[in-house]
Amino acid sequence: MAPADPLLVSKDWPVDPINPKAAILQRRLVKTRARLESWRREVAMVETLIRRHCGDTARVLDVACGTGFGVLELSARGFQAVGVDADSRLCTIVSDAARHFGIRAGSVAGDACRLPFADNSFDVVM
């Protein structure tokens, strides 16, 4: 049974054909949509764990977030989610999607071994 609010991956996404990572976004959307119920369960499980252990407005960092599916889905559920990825072009995809969906989420380019955030900035790191 599908929830009233569909997963963001099932909606139309902005694709900037100039971004050299647009093909990665398209492939990832196709792959995730093909296993939509599995993705729905994964998002629900992560959401449940975060709410149970860190509360409804937890600050979440997704390290190596790629196209940002997790960041965006968690942000759409009320968490303060941010992604970090080494590739700034993937971060642009996340920011474009957040604007498109009207979600307060983002991604910054950075090194996972030297995160560009102060200590204790997040309740959850994944």
User: Fraction of residues in helices?
Assistant: 40-55%
Radius of gyration: 14 Å
Q: Tell me the strand percentage band.
A: 5-15%
Instruction: Record the strand order, biggest sheet.
Output: 3-2-1-4
Rounded mean pLDDT score: 94
Number of helices: 4
In the predicted model, the low-confidence regions spanning at least 5 consecutive residues are none
Structural class: alpha/beta
Largest sheet: 4 strands, parallel
* Topology as a string of helices (H) and strands (E): HHEHEHEE
Terminus-to-terminus distance: 28 Å
In total, how many beta strands? Answer: 4
| Shape designation | globular
Secondary-structure topology with pairs:
Blueprint: H1 22-34, H2 36-54, E1 59-63, H3 69-76, E2 80-85, H4 88-101, E3 106-109, E4 124-125
Parallel strand pairs: 1-2, 1-4, 2-3
Description:
The protein has 126 residues and is α/β, with parallel strands linked by helices. The protein has helices spanning 22-34, 36-54, 69-76, 88-101; strands spanning 59-63, 80-85, 106-109, 124-125. The chain has a 4-stranded parallel beta sheet with strand order 3-2-1-4. Strand 2, helix 4 (88-101) and strand 3 (106-109) form a beta-alpha-beta unit. The longest helix has 19 residues, at 36-54.
